[in-house]
């Protein structure tokens, strides 16, 4: 059995399956999911004055809201707020805040399901790995805040949408570690 790192950071484009991977790994590893975007989902509805439930679904994130400069999506409000915090407090701010949150818990592993932009660099030098989740047809976004730096990726999981196969791959990963699960590195990508 391979020793897994304390921190598992997930990056990928919207709808690639990051949340699903996080849920599966959390159940297999007794890990706590630390949603690095949760503070944005909490604050943005209060700042922009929209329903607090909207940031929690893909449909809600697509909802148009009014701002003084015109209509934007809920997703845009979240991204703009995150970018503002990073511009003010450094590009690793969201990851830094999420990593600090782990101090409250005693879980052996922590999973961060929405690492964006260059914040994956905050995990380097820690007991961590950064995994990109890829899914065919979900390989871009019109929003710059969905971008992530591929230079920080250690492993890639190809999620073809088959939940049973994804479970099987992640069970193997949880038991034997990334190398034995054939998550070799970002250039030797694994498919389910």
Core attributes:
single chain; 192 residues; alpha/beta; 6-stranded parallel sheet; two-stranded antiparallel sheet; 6 helices; 17% strand; disordered C terminus
Spell out the blueprint of helices and strands:
Elements: E1 7-11, H1 18-29, E2 31-33, H2 38-48, H3 58-61, E3 64-67, E4 70-73, H4 74-89, H5 93-101, E5 109-112, E6 128-134, E7 155-158, H6 163-176, E8 190-191
Parallel strand pairs: 1-5, 1-6, 2-5, 6-7, 7-8
Antiparallel strand pairs: 3-4
Helix pairs in contact: 1-6, 2-4
General shape: globular
Structural category is alpha/beta
What profile does the largest beta sheet have? Answer: 6 strands, parallel
Low-pLDDT regions: 184-192
- Average per-residue pLDDT, rounded, comes to 89
Strand content: 15-25%
**What's the end-to-end separation, in Å?**
21 Å
How would you characterize this protein structure?
The structure is a single chain. Residues 184-192 have low confidence and may be disordered. Helices cover 34% and strands 17% of the residues. The longest helix is centred in the middle third of the chain and has 16 residues, at 74-89. Strand 7 (155-158), helix 6 (163-176) and strand 8 (190-191) form a beta-alpha-beta unit. With 192 residues, the chain is of the alpha/beta class. The strands form 2 sheets. It has a 6-stranded parallel β-sheet with strand order 2-5-1-6-7-8, with helices on one face.
């Amino acid at each position: 059995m391979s020793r897994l790192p304390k921190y598992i950071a997930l990056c990928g484009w919207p709808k690639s399956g990051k949340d699903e991977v996080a849920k599966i790994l959390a159940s297999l590893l007794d890990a706590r999911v630390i949603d690095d975007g949760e503070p944005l989902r909490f604050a943005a509805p209060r700042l922009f004055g929209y329903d607090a439930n909207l940031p929690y679904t893909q449909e809600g994130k697509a909802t148009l809201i009014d701002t003084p400069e015109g209509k934007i999506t809920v997703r845009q409000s979240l991204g703009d707020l995150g970018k503002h915090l990073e511009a003010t407090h450094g590009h690793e701010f969201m990851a830094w805040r999420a990593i600090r949150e782990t101090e409250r818990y005693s879980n052996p592993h922590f999973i961060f399901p929405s690492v964006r932009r260059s914040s994956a660099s905050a995990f380097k030098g820690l007991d961590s790995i950064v995994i990109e989740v890829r899914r065919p047809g979900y390989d871009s976004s019109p929003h710059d805040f969905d971008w992530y730096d591929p230079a920080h990726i250690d492993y890639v999981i190809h999620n073809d949408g088959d939940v049973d196969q994804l479970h099987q791959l992640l069970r193997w990963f949880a038991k034997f570690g990334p190398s034995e699960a054939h998550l070799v590195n970002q250039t030797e990508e694994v498919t389910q």
